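Write out the bound-state structure for zinc ion.
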Amino acid sequence: MATDERYQRGPDEQVELWASTPFFLMHLAPLGMIWFAPRWRDVALCLALYVVRMFFITAGYHRYFGHRAYKLGRFAQLVMALGGATAAQNGPLWWAGHHRHHHKHSDLPTDIHSPRRGLFWSHVGWILCSKYAQTPTAAIRDFAKYPELVWVDRYHLVPPLLLAVAVLAIGGPSALFMGFFLSTVLLYHGTFVINSLTHLWGRRRYRTTDTSRNSFLLAIITLGEGWHNNHHYYQSSARQGFFWWELDLSYYVLRALSWIRIVRDLREVPEHVRRSNLVVDGERDVGLELPGAAE
Ligand SMILES: [Zn+2]
Ligand SMILES: [Zn+2]
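---
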């Protein structure tokens, strides 16, 4: 996979172990459950905080800030930014700016986290490297003009800290270890598989110039982001499951929010686009109609 030397990482593209200590400690924190046995309500909290925060990441950080796939008022935009930040995956401008770079350079040697540069690197290594720690402001100027978003981006640790304190105060230590720490770690890897596995696992429907794939399993754990080949093919759509059987929970919630006018101008994939550039599967981009693709 990484035999092409153009994809080799430079000396400044290494995981920095010492600087990554907080990230590794976050993975050890759920072990606190050994001393504070979780109760059923802690399990429920873990699941709820996973689902709600995954929604903020996929619908907010990704589809809104990354792709402007729909419109929000200024207050709802701030709520989306704060909600995404509670997942402890850096600020919205950092996250979406790097993501736009990924779409611009998908699987080229300049793509920061293409799996062609190594599976671990694409999953998490690049995040643990100081070279990519800064917010790429030039890529996200449209949102960097809002001072409140710049604030959230700079102080991105405040929302997850406040959430952790609230969980501890209300639910006690077992809620903190399982409800907050475990769900945060699961959320990390649930999100990171979009950069690693969705370029390796699954099937291709559309002819794209990258290795993106569609996976039902990954769509479940990411609330709809597993339809990554669809997404690379037509990235401005708020809907990533292009057919009715392609489960896309984030889109369903956005649709419901559009009924009460919190969300406006939800962008969809045009019918003629959805039905063209089909391939049987990725390795054979021969432009044949996909059997069963017609509804
Ligand atoms: Zn991708
Ligand atoms: Zn995207």
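---
Residues 284-295 have pLDDT under 50 and may be disordered.
The radius of gyration is 19 Å.
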